[in-house]
Amino acid sequence: MLTIHHLAESQSERIVWLCEELGLDYEFRRYERDPDTKLAPREYRNLHPAGTAPVVTDQDQAMAESGAIMEYLIARYGDGKLAPDPDSHDFSRYKFWMHYANGSFTAAGLTLLVANMLGRNKSNETVEGLLDRYSRGFDLVEDQLGRTDYLAGERFTPADIIMLYPLSNLRKGLDVSLDKYPNLARYLIRLSERPAYQRMVKTIAPDPDPIHT
């Protein structure tokens, strides 16, 4: 049985959403953060040597890193659903967004979040560089959504799932308004209307809806 080990208010909602889109059966186990430190409990950190969220277990194997988990689930259980065919025009764009999400976009955003918490001045050259990299991500998304309905093309793919965190929770944590990004605003509404997305929101409750909070 596939088990999703969900740490409260983490990025594992993308794994739940993918499983719902693929129609997979899974067990959902919720873990709460320490109320003082906000860290994962030891029980969760012991699930995988990386000690990070999310984690899934499948056939007595534990996997961490959301991008790796998503690619594993798509390859093992996708049966040709959601991901573009490697020979399709959308495939290279799909792969770009799948890796850009965590490799550049989220990384820049999280570093900015930490810099803000530490009180770094925005005039600092390093912070300015991070701001530029993070803002460029929104420009890329806005431009792509002006050309196609979804990030990889005209149909929904896992790239839209993995990009949810930097476009929702992280964006709001950095107080980035959607006023300059009308294509993105409409796109997020489309995503939130998907039945699988709505099932995900119910599953992770009381964690907030990533798009509508």
Automatic annotation (TrEMBL):
One GO MF term: glutathione transferase activity
GO cellular component: cytoplasm
Catalytic reactions on record: RX + glutathione = an S-substituted glutathione + a halide anion + H(+)
Domain annotation GST C-terminal: ranges: 87-210
Keyword terms: Transferase
Location of the GST N-terminal domain: 1-81
Leading EC class: transferase
Domain of life: Bacteria
Pfam family, one: GST_N_2
CDD domains: GST_N_GTT1_like
EC id: 2.5.1.18
InterPro entries (alphabetical): Glutathione-S-Trfase_C-like, Glutathione-S-Trfase_C_sf, Glutathione_S-Trfase, Glutathione_S-Trfase_N, GST_C, Thioredoxin-like_sf
Coiled coil segments of this chain: none
Record's keyword annotation contains Transferase: yes
Keyword Transferase in record: yes
Entry protein name: glutathione transferase
